[in-house]
Amino acid sequence: MTASDLAGNKTTINGNFIINTIDVSAELDINSNSGDPHDNITNAKLPTFSGKTVANAEISLVINGEKYTTTADSNGKWSLTLATVLPDNTYHYTVTATLGDKVNYAAGEVVIDTSALTPTLNLADGSDSGVIGDYTTNVATPMLAGVTEPNAKVMLTINGVLYPITADGDGSWSFTVINPLVEGDNSYTLSIIDSAGNTSSSVMGYITLDTIAPSASAMLLPSDDSGNIGDDIISETILPLLPHLR
C-alpha cells in the first residue's frame, strides 16, 4: 500500500490484511412464497425466511421491529418462521450472520398480501350499444374490459368456456369474445388470482345479445276508420291520427 501527502511525499507499506467477513444469503422461503416463487409476495401471515451462510453461524432476522434468532446447521443452512402476524403491507428485513469475530449482512423486502380485489367487467366502448352499462349489445363478439390487481390472472368463463387473461401492470384488462354470443342472455363468471396467490370471490352475471330490430305497426283509430272498421285502409278524415301519435 502506498500513501502520499499534499507535498507529494510517498510512503510504501508492505504487509498482509484479512477481510474478516463471511457469506450470508436471505430470502422468503420457497414454501412461503405463494404465487410466483420469485417475486417475494406472499399471502402467508407468518412467513418463513431461509438462506445459507457458514456452518454454525449465529443468525438474527429483524423485520417490522421484531428480532428472531437461530443457528445455521452444519451445512450453513438456516430458516426462521415469524411468530408475530404481519398485516398486509411491504416490509424491509435485515439478516445478520455472525461467527466469532466474523460478520456479514443481507437485506430485502417482502410483500404480505392476503386478499384479492373483487374484479369488474363491462362492455368496452364500441361494444356497449344502446343504453350504456346495461350489459346489452348488438355485437356478437364484443370486447369486454375491467380493472383488477396489477398482473393478476383473470379467469373469465362465458357460456361454460374458460378464457384465462392476464391483467396489465396497472390492473386493467380487456378481451374480445372468441365464440360468438347467442341471441339472448349469455352467462359469465369472473374471478381473479393475484400475484400472492389469493383467489377472489366470483362475480356472475349475463351479457344480452340483441340483434333483432323491433317490429313496427300502425292502425287507424276507430273514430277515423270509415268503411270496414279495422281494415286500416279507408278514412274520411283528411289527417287521420294513428294511436301512437294521438
UniProtKB/TrEMBL annotation:
InterPro entries: Big_13 (IPR044016), Ig-like_fold (IPR013783). It comes from Salmonella enterica subsp. enterica serovar Inverness str. R8-3668. Residues 24-114, 118-211 form the Bacterial Ig-like domain. This is Large repetitive protein. NCBIfam families: Ca_tandemer. Pfam families: Big_13. It comes from the Bacteria. The lineage of its organism: Bacteria, Pseudomonadati, Pseudomonadota, Gammaproteobacteria, Enterobacterales.
